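Hi! If you just cloned this repository, the fastest way to understand the data is to look at a raw example. We've pasted two of them here, unedited. The first protein comes first, obviously.
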Amino acid sequence: MLEVAHISKSYKKKLVLSDASFSAADGKCVGILGTNGTGKSTLLSILAGILKPDSGTSLWEGVDLLKDAKFRTRVQGYVPQGIPLFPELSALDNLSLWYAQEKSDLEASLSSGILQRLGIKDFIRTPVAKMSGGMKKRLSIACAVACNPKLLLLDEPSASLDIICKEQILDYLGEFCAKGGTAVLVTHDIQEIEFCDSTYMLSDGKLESYNYSGNVKALVRDLENSK
């Protein structure tokens, strides 16, 4: 289980996160909701080890992932909102950087594993600079799961993607969680929200449990009231 506790972060005098806490069990997907600028990406960046919090812990199997970078790299994958790929390189070359020690795993995954599931083989020789948004996002996920993580952090993974790409990503997340993986998902997408087992809403730096009833208008109203 992932246990995030008392995460706080300020930029100069601006408080972005205040004592944010949540938990995510094995095989579950947790959604982080909120309007733009509320600190959702900041929270995920802290959990990914990109930013340092002012305080707080992120425990996995009793180990603080915020302090143990080696353990974090082994058990956690991160898909940021941007595209963390080398644009001049092909999909294969980008993947080779992540599978540097396990070339046989790369070949196997292209044939019948996660890379095949995400359709990476269809554009394996294509330079990133010439890929569509959906191709780049699927490749970003493929790189993030190269180490077979138990925990996956995703920042708006299907933003601006078409329906087919969204379904491919959600299908993969379903398989990931079904095998015991834990996912934390920052999202504005209704399909992704409905996929989540539990959701939290971030407002004024505070993270609180949120029960999404399936009523989109009520969700919009709650988001507007959270500003």
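Ok, and the second one:
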Amino acid sequence: MKITQVESFLMSYQMPEPIRLRFWGGERTILKRDAMLIRITTDTGLKGYAPGPAHERADREIKQTIGPFLIGKDPRRWQKFHIQADREVMKTYKAVEIALLDLVARYEECTLSELLGGRKRDRIKLYGSAGMYMEPEEYAREANTIIDMGFPAYKMRAGMGPEQDLKTVALMREAVGPEAGLMIDAHTWWRMGDKNYSFETIVKLARDMKDYHPIWLEEPLPPDDHAAYRELRAQSDMKSAGCLPALACGEHEPDDSGFHDLITTKAVDYIQMDILCQGGISTAQRIFEGIQKQGLRFAFHSWGTSLEVLTAAQLGVCWPENVVEWLEYPCYSNEDHPVMYPFPLADEILSERLEIENGYLVLPDEPEMGIEINENVIEKYPFIPGPWSVFHLNSPAETIAVTGDHSLKWVNAALRRRDGVKGKTR
């Protein structure tokens, strides 16, 4: 059996109208949502699939470097493949490797989890992720909707100013009751320019939010400033500060050394990672081993399609829940549940809906991923070049574009110049 084709398909769902969301430091505009499907075909006609990093650089890397490297090889020997590439190409290769594994699982007629070490369980806990820049009362309504949908926890994105953020958390807790979980994603706080919250403001706000028992506070500081996270986490041991919520970070780490530092120094309580953008299954397994040794917890970052959620789940169930605890489930708006914004491609990429029971994703027993791919989405949602989201900062006045690469803070410089959009790079 030989590989004859390696294909990557970028797709886009354009919002009916640009969605403009005000936050304390400016405004964010959602233009579209992107997705990538990877397909590997062999001379026997057998195919393997995987979600991919939803941005143009990865698409070029697959077409120009990774595809030619894999053509002619026997996918069953995937563990012996050693591509010579830089760090970013290697991360994209690790996403393509998931399609190789899917292909082998189909050949062996086993689940993908069996190739990843074997299942320790048949389900993984989900949290409903939505909540983007609203008034406190709207966040509370959405929190109630997500919990009513059966999710044990709801994650929102704060950034409306310290007083409004605290009011939001208080109203959410009142709306969902004492048992439901709440996660606060503060990634906007370090993206506000001159409006960025000071360290002292973050300490006070985190201490006040603790009264409402959030499961974690995510990225309250720039993610590459690990020393600041260690200092913030240490505040829980200081009587003057009082106990703070658990901290979460990781989705912007560029390499293994960053994860290693987060884990070994216990800079945060929950480590996060996106397997499509940050090194695939092998990196995730190394992270899990470190987390287990340090007594920390892991939560998947999964901000795309149902195929991404399913792929992460196939790996997550190979570890016990006290190591890999949470899987992010993005909740997009539809006829049944008017939350966040629409992204129909997210569900349509699979031929059937995922099975969710009591807040857990139940994995199918069938071979490979367990659910077939709906290839009709490739033609239905043609790709639209350019960033999917744009931040307009008030002070200093600046416009920053964002692509689907969660290992980078902002869009790369080449894309900014092409689109005439100004911004920052790592």
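That's it. A detail worth noticing about the second one: The CA atoms of residues 173 and 212 lie 6 Å apart.
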